[in-house]
Structure formats: structure tokens, C-alpha cells
Design a protein that fits this description.
9% helix; 31% strand; six-stranded mixed β-sheet; 6 strands
Length: 115
């Protein structure tokens, strides 16, 4: 599925295990990061559930900045508790975020398999 991503597809990158890492979202034909401003367990839980995990256990557990050429696509997310699809929280904009740096890339840790 990684060869043919769809808009608002999410993945975790550069974590020590497959259930953790920097949150990346596919927007405008490219992978990019999500700023951690207002990013909370509701947002992280949505990412985890979309990836097939039960929920999120941690937010911003580690600093994993992306390459400086990577776009930062999203900021100030607001997912609701129990949401299962990232596209319900935020739609990809046609521009990238400039008010955030890669030092603020959101990182999460997921747990459990979805039921």
C-alpha cells in the first residue's frame, strides 16, 4: 500500500518499533509531517486506529525531526475521541505549514490490535 498512497493516509516513521514514530501524512502527492501544536491523545489515537492499533499510549515521546526538505502539512488538529480516520479530523491543505519547525514534528506510540 505504500507504493500507492491515498490522500490523508498516515504512517509512522523512524521509531524503534513499528508501533511508534514520527507521524506522517500523505497530502498533495507527497509525504509530510504533522506539527505537534495542539496534537494530543485524541489525534494520536485516530492515527493509531487508522493504522490498525487499538489506541495511542503516548504523544511526543521522542524528538524525531524529518529531513528539512520534507513538508509540514498539518497543524492545530482537532480529532474527536474515538475517531477512526485521519481525514475526518483535518483535510490536506494546498500549502504547507511555515509556523512550525521539524523539531515540532508529532511523534506517537500506539498499542494493541484493533478489535
Amino acid at each position: 500500500i505504500w507504493d500507492n498512497p491515498f490522500p490523508s493516509m498516515v504512517r509512522l516513521m523512524d521509531g524503534d518499533f513499528t508501533n511508534e514514530g514520527r507521524v506522517e501524512v500523505y497530502c498533495n502527492g507527497e509525504w509530510g509531517t504533522v506539527c505537534n501544536t495542539t496534537f494530543d491523545l485524541n489525534d494520536a489515537g485516530t492515527v493509531c486506529r487508522q493504522l490498525g492499533y487499538a489506541d495511542a499510549s503516548q504523544v511526543d515521546y521522542k524528538t524525531l525531526p524529518a529531513n528539512s526538505s520534507t513538508f509540514i502539512w498539518l497543524n492545530n488538529l482537532q480529532c474527536y475521541p474515538g475517531e477512526r480516520c485521519f481525514s475526518k479530523c483535518e483535510l490536506c491543505e494546498y500549502g504547507f505549514i511555515t509556523s512550525c519547525s521539524h523539531q515540532q514534528d508529532a511523534t506517537i506510540r500506539c498499542y494493541g490490535a484493533s478489535s
